[in-house]
Amino acid sequence: MDKRKQLRQQIRRLRRALTPLQQQQAATRLLRNMRCRADFRRARSVALYLPNDGEINPEPLIRLCWKLGKQVYLPVLHPILHNRLWFLPYTPKTRMVRNIYRIKEPELIPDQRRAAWSLDLVLLPLVAFDAEGNRMGMGGGYYDRTFSFKNRKNGMRGPDLIGLAHEVQRVDQLPIESWDISLSAIVTDAKSYP
Ligand SMILES: Nc1ncnc2c1ncn2[C@@H]1O[C@H](COP(=O)(O)OP(=O)(O)OP(=O)(O)O)[C@@H](O)[C@H]1O
Ligand SMILES: [Mg+2]
């Protein structure tokens, strides 16, 4: 098995082993570390995710966004355009369905779609990260493809991208690939990186 795959399995096991209490504390600490950030406060549209596979839970942040009148979006897997994410609005009234990974997502209503480049802030999950702010995801390349326009020279600036993770997901150094999107920060239950 290759090294990336092995590392993914190891870290996914670590985060799945966190107890419900540890998960709840981490979510509260994450909220505290995010809410004071200038990039969060000025963002009017914010994309987040619903937690899966032991990922740090951003639901308290989602509720704060609603309270502050920010527009909240969730990623949706497009059934035909493989490997790219669409973003649909998420409110307490949104009808949810399960995607091929059994993760809940808003029902796909094409004309409600929000273009990825037009979001202010995207808070994305990850499997492993290092202190330099490098990110490794689940291996689908979904976020990398969706935001690849940011890596191009003269590309659009697009949204700020911030990775969210448990502190236990940090590794010494991550091998990065040319297609990996660069993040402006990674925020954990303990602190912000870099
Ligand atoms: N911009 C891109 N264009 C074409 N293929 C890409 C692009 N970005 C990533 N890929 C492909 O996607 C596959 C998975 O990439 P990678 O291992 O970096 O996923 P990841 O970062 O873990 O996943 P995700 O982005 O969903 O969090 C790779 O084989 C890579 O070739
Ligand atoms: Mg990647």
Class from secondary-structure proportions: alpha/beta
Question: How many helices?
Answer: 5
Averaging pLDDT over every residue, what do you get?
95
Terminus-to-terminus distance:
30 Å
* Number of separate strands: 11
- Spatial ordering of strands, largest sheet: 3-2-1-6-9-10-11
Helix content range of the residues, please?
25-40%
Basic shape: globular
Describe the largest sheet.
7 strands, mixed
**CATH domain topology:** Rossmann fold
- What series of H and E elements makes up the topology? HHHEHEEEEEEEHEEE
Question: What distinguishing features does this structure have?
Answer:
two-stranded antiparallel sheet, 194 residues, 5 helices, alpha/beta, 25% helix, 11 strands, binds magnesium ion, seven-stranded mixed beta sheet, globular, Rossmann fold
Walkthrough of the structure:
With 194 residues, the protein is of the alpha/beta class. 25% of the residues lie in helices and 22% in strands. The chain has one domain: NagB/RpiA/CoA transferase-like (Rossmann fold), CATH 3.40.50. It has 5 helices and 11 strands, in the order αααβαβββββββαβββ. The strands form 3 sheets. It has a 7-stranded mixed β-sheet with strand order 3-2-1-6-9-10-11. A two-stranded antiparallel sheet has the order 4-5. Helix 2 packs parallel to helix 4 (59-67). Residues 137, 144, 180 line the site of magnesium ion (MG).
